[in-house]
Amino acid sequence: MLKGTFPVEKFKLLPTPFYYYDMKLLQDTLDVVKAESGKYGYHVHYAIKANANPRILSMIAANGLGADCVSGGEVQAALDAGFPADKIVFAGVGKADWEINLGLDNDIFCFNVESAAELEVINELAAAKGKVAPVALRVNPEVDAHTHAKITTGMKENKFGINLSQLGSVLDQLKGMRNVRLIGIHSHIGSQITDMSGFRNLAIRMNEIQDDLAARGIVVENINLGGGLGIDYYHPNHMPIPAFDNYFAAVHKLLQPRPGQRIHFEPGRSIVAQCGSLIARVLYVKEGEMKKFAILDAGFTELIRPAMYDAYHRIENISSDEPVDVYDVVGPICESSDVFGKDIELNKTHRGDWIAIRSAGAYGEVMASRYNCRSLPKAYYSDTI
Ligand code: LLP
């Protein structure tokens, strides 16, 4: 079995479970993101929701990326990590007044507005401060991302964005507003997208939207195509850096920007997923009647993706080289959904073995919970362990 390389001897000094981040892989990934987006002059805002660990954030900020935030807490985390305010975009269907005020007070680059009602509130709050808020309208492009239903966002039935049929009336509404300024159009179709046709269709739809705007005499300065590039959960060792070259090239081929227009992206998962692993130890091997269970000291409190989205994560026994056997790999939480994987091939597993659950750098640590009164685990980093 081809496994990742982990400093298991060093792990033996650390209490499990914990998140382990390969900081070299993160830097290599960022280098590729910068090189590939730089070919076309694209602007990349890292989606903080994927992983808001302060060390990860500071490294991404130090590489010059912007930030995509969906809450006041994320805006604050971005500022604390050193992302410049003029590279922060702030999306979300339900921004509270204090969150909008935080964005206004810090002069962030842009509010991605998701409804006519929100636009009214931003206009009022900006007026109270004597400011003009820069806004992009988040349009629901009605493009199918061909991904898991729970992480599809760009369809009519989703709560996100302004429907295409209502865009005209929102643009009319904007005309009468003095304290918001339309600077862009934004769209995001979903997450863990591996079929490039979704992104191609989004680029084509954006051209159509731009034609409609032009017919109204409107040209915006910014187009934001959101995030969503998927990663290879099955082969993290073969494919540690996602194909950013294909992604940006696919968009570049089809998108028709207007002169001087700036193109933005909001990738989250594709930047951080592969650099993170959840490291756990085997508490018990339980021989059931039909199955063997490897019971770990980590559960869905540390990585909820398998329980919540039936997501596959590669699981490796990093301390055993014995012949392979088959296990259901489960956690200790008192819920039957606390399963990391069924019928998983692992090198023969014993109590005390070290297990790596791979590709956990995105939507892992950031979605951890304290259910069952568990403690939130620590994170360790390849360069300081
Ligand atoms: N921009 C917007 C407006 C978003 O809603 C999202 C993700 C992103 C960017 C970043 O998408 P990414 O590049 O990471 O796919 N917890 C789920 C994923 C939820 C994604 C929510 N929105 C999971 O573990 O699969």
TrEMBL record:
Pathway: Amino-acid biosynthesis; L-lysine biosynthesis via DAP pathway; L-lysine from DL-2,6-diaminopimelate: step 1/1. The keyword Transcription regulation does not apply. Transmembrane segments: none annotated. Its cofactor is pyridoxal 5'-phosphate. The active site is at C334. Keywords: Amino-acid biosynthesis, Decarboxylase, Lyase, Lysine biosynthesis, Pyridoxal phosphate. It catalyses: meso-2,6-diaminopimelate + H(+) = L-lysine + CO2. GO terms for biological process: lysine biosynthetic process via diaminopimelate. It holds the Pfam family Orn_Arg_deC_N. Residues 42-273 form the Orn/DAP/Arg decarboxylase 2 N-terminal domain. Pyridoxal 5'-phosphate binds at G228, E266, P267, G268, R269, Y363. It is an enzyme of class 4 (lyase). Substrate binds at R269, R305, Y309, E335, Y363. It comes from the Bacteria. The modification N6-(pyridoxal phosphate)lysine is found at K49. Its EC number is 4.1.1.20. GO terms for molecular function: diaminopimelate decarboxylase activity; pyridoxal phosphate binding. Specifically catalyzes the decarboxylation of meso-diaminopimelate (meso-DAP) to L-lysine. Homodimer. NCBIfam families: lysA. This is Diaminopimelate decarboxylase. It comes from Candidatus Parabacteroides intestinigallinarum.
